[in-house]
Amino acid sequence: MLTAHAPAGYAVSKLAVSMGWIPKSAASPRTAIGIGVFAALLPDLDMIYFLTIDQRQHLHHGYWTHIPLFWVAVCGAAIIGSCLLRCHRIIPLVVLAGVNLLLHCFLDTIVAGILWHKPFSHRYTVFAEVPNVYPYTALNFILHWTFALEVLIWLAAFGVFAWGRRAARRRAIRIPHAALTDF
Predict the structure, then answer these.
(1) 3-class secondary-structure state, position 21
(2) pTM summary value
């Protein structure tokens, strides 16, 4: 995935908020969606290290930020910590962040490979191999059939956005039933 992590995170977070899985006591809808999108992008912060310090020596999907078990452990520790501190209202936000972190890893599994079994195995899991045909790496991904999945994710996120706007407009223009009977 080159560009679909943020829209996928937005769509999942917006649907979670809209369906009431994130209570307003935990965070405002805008904050919850922001946390979800940030979590969906968080594993790719390793690109800074990859491009500067490591100088592209190792595949960045091998770094700890792309290890699903690491994120499960972090979210589990955050949930246990919030229970011990009796701060239960942040648990839905931690779960939302965890879902988006794992969604990032799943989306990367489609063409890039992720170490889903680490530390038990060092084999990358990948659904479709992208051949290195063009000199510009991104072009190999853009011209591969799997890029259609990325476009579909963008369209789904736009659909969720439009659906949310339409629902908000419908709520804003509701006329009380009693006002209709005055005519």
Answers:
(1) coil
(2) 0.86
